[in-house]
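Hey, can you fold this one?
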Amino acid sequence: MSRPVIALIIGLLGFFAYVVVVLAIADHLRGLHWTIEMVFFAVAGIAWVWPAKRLMVWAFSEGPRG
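Sure. Predicted structure:
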């Protein structure tokens, strides 16, 4: 299996798990001050970018030559 296909599968599963965790945490934050919710969703909305970037770099980098 090629790296892009593996990255796609890992990315989709990881993103789904990330969304589930963020929503579970968001349920506990409901009813708190709106600024706390805003900061949480701002951070949660951006935090997935770094692991996704690393996964894409890995998927499209050259593997070992053989």
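The two ends are 16 Å apart (CA to CA). Let me know if you want another pass with a different chain boundary.
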